[in-house]
Amino acid sequence: MKNILSLVNLDNAQALDLINNSIKIKKNPQKYSDSMHNKTMLMLFEKPSLRTRVSFQVGMQQLGGYSVVIEAKDTPLGEKESIADTAKVSSRYCDLMMARMFRQEDIEELASNAAVPVINGLTDTFHPCQILSDLLTIHEKKGKLKGLKLAFVGDGNNNITHDLLLGCSAVGIDVSVGCPRQFEPQKWIVEIAEKKAKSIGSKVMVFGDAKKAAKGADIVYADTWMSYHIPKKEKESRIRIFQPYRVNQKLMSYAKKDAVFMNCLPAMRGYEQAAEVIDGNQSIVFDQAENRLHMQKAVILKLMGKR
Questions:
Q1: Is 292 among the residues known to form the active site?
Q2: Average of pLDDT values for 68-86?
Q3: Given 134, 292, 294, 296, which residue is catalytic?
Q4: For the stretch 17-26, what's the b/e string if a residue is b when 16 or more beta carbons lie within 10 angstroms of its beta carbon?
Q5: Which residue of 89, 187, 212, 289 has the lowest C-beta tally within 10 Å?
Q6: What is the pLDDT of residues 197-233, one digit of tens each?
Q7: Threshold 0.90, pTM exceeds
Q8: Residue 103 is a catalytic residue
Q9: What domains can be seen in the chain, in order of their start residue?
């Protein structure tokens, strides 16, 4: 595993390895406090960030290393300097890189020209570290992964949905997506998820109805209706389209009684979910957020060949 750019190639063994290591790190962080001694990670941001930025920066520090944070707008990236040159130069200074970019093609170009490991901190298409952290959280709350059902409702054509499909299908979680037909996940990603699911005995389902998607689910998952790359002028029309997919108590009632609610945050109460859900007893959104720290550390150590 040289880079983590998406969960397209993630298999069950790799996922469980990262989850098990993150559990060990979470239980005994002091044991790993010198693991990245004298190592430096470059963090490059084209998009806004709270959890990704803080969890990676704190994680690197807790591992005994350093991080350099750069906003892409403050660099010559894409104007005076190519992505390839940025990767080659940065590799001379740093031991690994994490980038949060708009285009998946750009982070793949960055990785193909870097001499050090590259981590995708989010693109318009994928958000792998978030979903790896979510799998850790689900494992903590449910005591298992295989045999569970996760229902995602809302915008199916976004980075969270895509890596949920790829990550859950790798570990044997049934994935059910409820979304408007014009906002379904990208077909090529669904096809990969279906192949993974078939190999491990799970299912991938896409519905136009939120209730059908949520029926019998162990986890109900929502995400913002306004991802960073969506123009603000589309907000009102998207609210009208996605209203039937808002997660409220009625929709949660279609899931299992002990179902949990997840959202990768940031979250808008009254939009993708009701306040009563995200602030209620079934919500585990802040456990999700915390686990970003522990999983990021596991990812860093894995890519650097450390345990």
A1: yes
A2: 87
A3: 292
A4: ebbebbbebb
A5: 187
A6: 999 999 999 999 999 999 999 999 999 988 878 888 9
A7: yes
A8: no
A9: 12-127+289-303 (3.40.50.1370), 130-286 (3.40.50.1370)
Select from 133, 97, 129, 99 the least CA-distant residue to 116: 97
Burial label for 44, CB within 10 Å (0-12, 13-18, 19+), is buried
Beta carbons within 8 Å of 270's beta carbon, 6+ residues apart: none
Q: Which of 94, 168, 179, 264 is catalytic?
A: 264
Query: Given this model, what pLDDT does residue 75 score?
Result: 83
**Residues in a beta bridge with 150:** 175, 219
The sign one gets for the Cα dihedral 72, 76, 81, 87 is negative
Mean predicted confidence (pLDDT) in 15-37: 98
Q: Is 223 one of the annotated active-site residues of the chain? A: yes
Q: What CA–CA distance (Å, rounded) separates 206 from 12? A: 22
Residue 127 annotated as catalytic: yes
The band of 183, judged by pLDDT with boundaries at 50, 70 and 90, is very high
Name the active-site residue from 129, 223, 273, 296. 223
**Catalytic member of 51, 100, 139, 162:** 100
CA distances from 270 to 37, 71, 182, 225, 239 (A): 45, 32, 23, 11, 10
Backbone angles phi, psi at 257, to 5 degrees: -60, -30
Confidence of residue 77 (pLDDT cuts 50, 70, 90): confident
Q: Which token pair is 208?
A: 């136009």
Q: Which of 51, 124, 127, 296 is catalytic?
A: 127
pLDDT at residue 126 in the model: 98
Q: Which of 130, 273, 282, 288 is catalytic?
A: 130
- Closest by CA position to 33, among listed 73, 63, 6: 63
